[in-house]
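How a chain folds remains the central question behind the approach discussed here. For one protein, we set the task of working out the structure tokens from the amino acid sequence alone. The sequence in question and its structure tokens are set out directly beneath this paragraph.

_____
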Amino acid sequence: MSGSTTPGAPRAATIIPWWLWGCLGSAVFVHATGSTWYSWLEPLWPRAHAVLAHVRPWLDLASENNLGVWWSGALLFLGSMLLLEVAGEAPPEERRAWTLLGLPSLGLSIDEVASIHERLSAHWGWTPLIAIGIVSLALLGWSLLALARRFGRWRAVLLVAAGYICYGSIAIQEAAEHGKLAGWDWWRSGRLEEGSELLGSLFILFAAVGERYRGRETRLRAVFPRPDRLPALGAALLAVLVLHSLVSVLVVPRLPDWEWRGNPVTWYPSATHALTACAAFWHGQHSRGRRRGLWTAASVVFLIASIAAIFDAVLLFPGIDHLLPRRSYYGFYASYVFLVAPLLLLGIGGRLVRRPAWLVGAVALPLLLYGLTGSWRVAIVTPGFLAWALAMAFGVTEPPEAVEVRPRSV
């Protein structure tokens, strides 16, 4: 009989598509922004109300250095990396257009974490933002027209265009949020603005996944880029590390608002840990048995480290504020807690790294430098080095097949 199942036959696992995970997660963060939705619990369950009141700042998209900011930046970052992956595998005549399509969302990811446009508008007004916007729109428009008219990539073009229309609407919403238009609670709370950002990010991610897999993959792993397929990733990571270090030492100390706006030095470690998490995941997909489990565990640890690099540890433990020498780099302390022991165990004990000395040096050198100098400037530079060295040790630029055939002796 058509549609019947054989008694005793195993049922197929239900696959929740990646976009449903993305929408549900985004809905949680948007709802928590500027909201006290848990207030009705206070007369019924005071303890739960107190816990939720403590947790809400972790999720608030309108705040900085928390889980909500990481989520927003991660959606943009993943979409950008997938588009650049498409560029790396596209025919030569399409590569420039795909690359230009992926770079704006990478810039928006940096801005989301580092609060760049807020600082530019506060110090120089809207002029630099308008100039950046005109240049970005020109490059984006050229790439969209080229992909649509010359190469027929209409689906991706329309989705990316919808994403940037959502972002373009934010200028009006920010005017409303600052009281220049008629008041509305959703505007004043920032929920509509932040929701528009996440919706735009999901449109871009949808375009990237659709182009990357052509509708053949809907599982959550579809949003994980293959770092080994990103053009010149090794050179790019090293070049951005140098830029990150210069910004950390020369620019960040002069910022008067770095303790309450987004921290510019957190993006590079977080993004590099996220890429390494993706690489470890794909290494695990090409491994078997015990090694598959070890690579999966490493991927989870790097994902936690990516969050920890941005997350203000004081939000978790308010009492430790006086213990930190400077709140200039919150994730520096949290990243070590999440990284050192499990990655030494997984990398060396599980034989996941080809050069154990890289892993030991990545952990020991920052601690040694900080111990010798006692300088907080060293503290804000070394997490970037730590993220880069760990990425190299765990084979972020290597194909999963090459990692799987590594010799057992190291």
Remarks:
- Confidence is low (pLDDT under 50) at residues 1-7, 405-410.
- The longest helix spans residues 127-150.
- The chain has 18 helices and no strands.
- Residues 329 and 380 are 6 Å apart (CA to CA).
